[in-house]
Amino acid sequence: MKKAKIIYWTATIIIFLFEGVVPALTSNTEVAVEGIRHLGYPDYFRNMLTAFKVIGALALILPIVTGRYKEWAYMGFAICMLSAFISNWAVDGFQVGTLFPLIIFAILITSYLYYHKLNRYVYQKQNL
Q: Which burial class, exposed, middle or buried, applies to 112 when counting CB atoms under 10 A from its CB (0-12, 13-18, 19+)?
């Protein structure tokens, strides 16, 4: 179980940093503003997306948040990453940078799978 915990927390911390901390610190930079405009989204979408990303990242990292709230956070990030991939591909065509959201999506799936693996272990341990 030690290996599973290390994998889970490593993947979850990466998601927390890329989807919670980085957007919170950089959402008002010129690069972020232009990035959202370039994809054709209105400016308020950037603010809304940043708020939801920070809330979702906190839901994933805080141990007091359990069950459905974590599930919704995982689902929100999954939709966000797939939408980012599709938006970048539709506007800029297929490039190396277009794959970055899919890499984060793979890390998110790893976190999700190991979250459930650890929960099954705790559940089995309680029922022994």
A: buried
How buried is residue 56: exposed, middle or buried, by Cβ count under 10 Å (0-12/13-18/19+)? buried
If one counts the domains in the chain, the total is 1
Model confidence pLDDT, tens digit, residues 37-83? 999 999 999 999 999 999 999 999 998 998 899 999 999 999 999 99
Q: Which domain holds residue 23?
A: 2-126
DSSP class of residue 27 equals: T
Scan for tokens 């459905």, then name that residue.
Answer: 68
Q: What is the pTM of this model?
A: 0.88
- Cα 47 from Cα 85, distance rounded (Å): 19
85 Cβ contact partners less than 8 Å away, ≥ 6 residues apart: 98, 99, 101, 102, 105
Residue 81's identity, in one-letter code, is M
What angle do the packed helices 43-61 and 30-38 form, to 10 degrees?
110
Q: In the chain, count of helices (H) and strands (E)?
A: 6, 0
